[in-house]
Amino acid sequence: MKNKVKYIALIPVIILAIVLSCGKKDSKEGNPDSIISGTTSILVDESLMPIVEDQVSVFQSQYDAEIKLLPKSEKEAVIDFSKGVADIIILSRDLNNDEKAFFKNKKIKPKVTSFAIDAVAFVKNNKSNDTLIELKQIIDFLKGSKNDIKGLVFDNPNSSSVRYLCELAGIESLPSEGVFSVKTNNEVIKFVSENNGLIGVVGMNWLTQPKPEMQKYIDELKVLSVKGVDGVYVSPSQDNIATRTYPLARVLYIINCQGYDGLGMGFASFIAGEIGQRIILQSGLAPVREPSRNIKIRNQIENKK
Q1: Which tens digit of pLDDT belongs to each residue from 228-237?
Q2: Phi, psi for 64 (deg, rounded to 5)
Q3: Is the domain covering 118-249 a CATH 3.40.190.10 domain?
Q4: Better-scored residue on pLDDT, 19 or 134
Q5: 3 state SS for the chain
Q6: Where are the domains of the chain?
Q7: What are the CA-CA distances from residue 29 to residues 19, 22, 36, 240, 255 (Å)?
Q8: What is the dihedral of CA 134, 136, 142, 145, to 10 degrees?
Q9: CB 42 within 8 Å of CB 66
Q10: How buried is residue 302: exposed, middle or buried, by Cβ count under 10 Å (0-12/13-18/19+)?
Q11: Domain 9-18+31-117+251-287 maps to which CATH number in 3.40.250.10, 1.10.357.140, 3.60.40.10, 3.40.190.10?
Q12: pLDDT digits (tens, 9 = 90+) for 177-219
């Protein structure tokens, strides 16, 4: 039975490989991987690590494959991607026009697959009475205007969260006052849980899938509902992320520049397929495709006495 289930799970990967291989030359000989076996490395925006680790763990348990994850800030990951440190990258955005032009000049056509919807969340210490925040307040604060915000805590100056909010505010970099940078999302969580009055900026995935040792710090936090342009306060719940009514929802992508039928293709098919989307659903994030539901139908009705 176990072999049968494993075979069924493999079918979408095989079909994708056949479709994408039509009209292409055979994969180069000597590659260390195929779509379901071998070894490869993947650069990962470190703010997305919890969900990516889950996907890799299940993928490796089903196939004879070894994937090494290289977590870095978004900016560092993209630089390493352009240098060829790895041919696969997972980001909370697609490549921009300059990055696409770079790979086009190298005669490489990236294969981009969306697989989940995450969110940037704002958190405060439980001692605070605040449960709401206006996105306009955050943007004004980042632009240098003084308001009720005492300070923002980010994971890393080069992170995707910083880039995302700077783009919303229309600024090139963070202001020099009132903004704190640590190193990781876990450090943001710990810092805010121990310091009342500050607002932490974290990837939602770090709150829905914490490491056991982080739960005590998360228990000291409250996640703020955010008021967007529509004037309604919305919490970053799974449903609100899925419908994009939460104003800071963001799509996650795996971008593959391997140029042959390797693990980049197989893993992208896996996380965008039935099993991968179920993992997303169970994580508290939103899948980009609703996985099917198994319904058991009984042939006979039991009469209870």
Answers
A1: 987 899 999 9
A2: -80, 65
A3: yes
A4: 134
A5: CHHHHHHHHHHHHHHHHHHHHCCCCCCCCCCCECCCEEEEEEEEEHHHHHHHHHHHHHHHHHCEEEEEEEEECHHHHHHHHHHCCCCEEEECCCCCHHHHHHHHHCCCCCEEEEEEEEEEEEEEECCCCCCEEEHHHHHHHHCCCCCCCCCEEECCCCCHHHHHHHHHHCCCCCCCCCEEECCCHHHHHHHHHHCCCCEEEEECHHHHCCCHHHHHHHCCEEECEEECCCCCEECCCHHHHHCCCCCCEEEEEEEECCCCCCHHHHHHHHHHCHHHHHHHHHHCCEECCCCCCCCCCCCCCCCCC
A6: 9-18+31-117+251-287, 118-249
A7: 20, 18, 16, 46, 22
A8: -100
A9: no
A10: exposed
A11: 3.40.190.10
A12: 899 999 999 999 999 999 999 999 999 999 998 999 999 999 9
Is the per-residue pLDDT at 21 higher than 50? no
Cα pseudo-dihedral 184, 188, 193, 194, rounded to 10: 90
Mean pLDDT for 45-57 is: 96
The domains spanning 9-18+31-117+251-287 and 118-249 adopt the same CATH topology: yes
Q: How far is CA 45 from the centre of its chain?
A: 8
Q: Tokens for 174?
A: 């963070």
